Each structure stands twice: as C-alpha cells, then as structure tokens.
Amino acid sequence: MRQMLRIGYLLNTYPQPSVTFVRREIRALEEQGISVLRFAMRSDRDALVDPTDLEEYDRTELILKLGAFSLVTNAFCCALQHPGRFYGAFSMAMRMGRRGGGRLRHLIYLVEAAYLARRANDLELDHIHAHFGTNPAAVASLMKQLGGPSYSFTVHGPEEFDSPVALSLNEKIARSAFAVAISSHGRSQLFRWADYEDWPKLHVVHCGIDPALFPLPSAMPETEELRLVNIGRFAEQKGQLLLPEAVAIARSMGARVHVTLVGDGPMRPQIEAAIARHGVADAFTLTGWLDEQGVRSALADAHALVLPSFAEGLPMVVMEAMAAGRAVIATYIAGNPELILNGTTGWLVPAGDPQALAQAMVTAHQTSVADLTAMGGAGRARVLTRHDINQEAAKLASLFQKAIGS
Q: Does the keyword Transferase apply (predicted)?
C-alpha cells in the first residue's frame, strides 16, 4: 500500500522570480517525504535567471503548452464520459463568470480543470493545493466538481481581497477541504467572506524562509550615507513611485541616502521619470531582477530594506531582509505589523505619506551602525522563530493529511 502523500501544486505562472516562496515550500514538503507534482498554466521561461527556478521549470507540467485542440478534445471526452459532472462544472463556471472575470474566461478554466482532473486521477494524486485565490483556485474548484481529488488553496492578498465577490471567494472556500492565509490579517479578511460554518477551514500558514540560506549576517556597511534597498516588482501596489520624493525630502533634512531598486515591472518608466523630476538620479541604482544570491548580496550591501507598499499580504522580502540581519522601513498595512516591531526591528510608517517615509529615512540615517546591527539581530531572531519554512511546511503537511483522511 502506498504510504507517501502525492500532492499536486497548481499555479497560474510557475516558476517565476516573484514566487520563489512557493518553490521553497514545495521543496520543504519534499524534504518531509511528500511527493509534489507541479502544474502551472504557463511559465515565462525567458524571465528566469535563478538556476533553481530553471530546475523547477523542467519539473513543471505546463497545461496551456498542450495547445487548445488537445485541451478542448480532452474536455469533450470528459463531457461524454461524465455528462452529469460536466454539466455541474459548466453551470458552476457560468455562475462564477457572471460574478466576475467573464464567462469565456471561466470556460477556459473549465477546459483546464478537465485536463487537471484527468491528470490528477491518472497520477493517483491525493490532493491538489493551489496558490492564490484567483484563477488557480477556480480551476482547482472546477477540477473537484469534475471528479478530481480534494483541493485547498493559499490566499496571499491583496488581489483576492480587492475583488472577493468577483472571485467567488466564498464558494471556493466552501468547496475546499481548507484554505490558508499567510498572516492573521489575511485570515481575518477570509472570515469576512466565508460563511461562518466554514471558519474552521481557515488556517494561517506563513510563507517561510530557509534558515540554511541565511547564515550569520554580514557586517553593516561603514558608510556615511544610508544605504537602502527595495526589492520587488515595479507595480502600483508596491509604492516605489514615492521613493524619489521621499529621498528628496530626506536630503533636504540633511540625510545622505542611496536607494538600490532590485526588480522590474510596468511602473519602471514612471519611477525613472520621478527620479529625474525630483533631481535624485545620483541617489538611485536600478539593477533589474537578480537571482537569489544577487538579492542576498544587495541586502548585505544595505543598512535597511525600504518597502513603501500601498497593499500587501506579508512580503517575503521583509522576511528575507530580517533573516539577513537588516532593519526594515515599511508601511502600516496588512500583515506587516505582525512581523515588524516599530522601533525594535525597523520603522513602520503610514502608507502613501512621503513625508513620514522621509522622516523614517532620516531617523535611520541618524541611527548608529551598532544600533542598526542590534535592530537587525532582533529582526533575525523574530523571523527565524516565526517563519522557518520547515516548520510552516510541517503545518501544511498536517493539513493535507487531515484533508485526505477526512
């Protein structure tokens, strides 16, 4: 009798640089003896720079790579073999489509779900776990209706909380074995949209870091200027567009500040224009995307991480910065206050306030290297206690086991 759990992981785009936390979670589960098969709708192969992501690409089954003809043919066969199930899934897709996203899009999800259901049964998967409560959770829910195994999903935010009705979040939770939030704040938002009887299904499993990748922190740079690093996709919710103004204000208050922006994205032209408009080009370096070693090097060269986000879940980059022994300047939003202790491991400021952000930069600039090092040490101890990927994966494995056994 087979003893090893066989779990399918489902994402929209995988691997990609912004979801390395999923890769860590998968590998931690495998270390605990769980067999994980990766499924994704697509992957941007050309954007991958990290060797481990390239390894993951080779291990991931890309559903849309099969082509429309093969997927539609499979769905047609599913409808002929199981007309009742298929009609139920079709009705469900149309209902979800009316709420948001469109019926055509949900027909595509239905076709993807039919393929996933067949593959899950052929591979004898015990359970499917989707990351993000958007289309991966929709496909998983439809897959279950089509006769596939039980499913669960992790909600990260903020996207899911922007459109909970349009995303049919309530129905996805109701049909799931369980749902996971990455912070207590996130679970509180799920409480808002789940039926009360489904509250026991809602759990907190943090995104985790691998302590082995973060040995004792390197020494803080001994420089007169404050070196800050921002890591992430250049998108509206991340708030990088405020940084040039905040740096200009901090400079006017006598602080010498330099910011390294690691990442890329649709807001890059606007960020570059803001840097030029505020006359702070000499205070910024844009590196583009870096691999994990490059990110760790960027953190080592900085005194602190700066993250002026308008909306978040609980950012992985905050955990990585704290594990690297660096203080964090971030905004009072979502799960940030659950991890960052204002004045102890960094500074929390109101979102969207460049003056407050600048004042935090000035305060950090005036803080001695010894005190910054102490703040970084306090942050490291806190994140290693709360976000060890092995501990968090064990929580998830226990939930999988209970779901399969129920």
A: yes
Three-class SS state of 111: helix
Name residues whose C-beta falls within 8 Å of residue 271's C-beta, 6 or more positions apart in sequence: 234, 240, 241, 243, 244, 261, 286
**In this structure, are residues 226 and 304 in contact, taking their beta carbons and an 8 Å threshold?**
yes
CATH code 3.40.50.2000 for 6-208+388-405 = yes
Quick check: helix, strand or coil at residue 342? Answer: strand
* 20 HSE (CA, 13 A, CB side): 23
333: Cβ contacts below 8 Å, ≥ 6 apart = 309, 310, 311, 312, 351
User: What angle (nearest 5°) sits at the alpha carbon of residue 393, between those of residues 118 and 43?
Assistant: 50
Q: Tens of pLDDT along 235-270?
A: 999 999 999 999 999 999 999 999 999 999 999 999
Provide CATH code, domain 215-386: 3.40.50.2000
CB-based contact 303:326 (threshold 8 Å): yes
Distance CA 389, CA 386 (A): 9
Domain residue limits, the chain: 6-208+388-405, 215-386
Give the C-alpha separation, 51 to 134, whole Å: 28
C-alpha 87/C-alpha 15 separation (Å) is 33
Rounded Cα–Cα distance for residues 254 and 240 (Å): 22
pLDDT at 215: 86
Q: Residue 388: which region, alpha, beta or left (left: phi > 0; alpha: psi -120 to 50)? A: beta
Q: 292: closest CA among 318, 320, 265?
A: 320
Name the range with the highest mean pLDDT among 57-61, 160-164, 287-291: 57-61
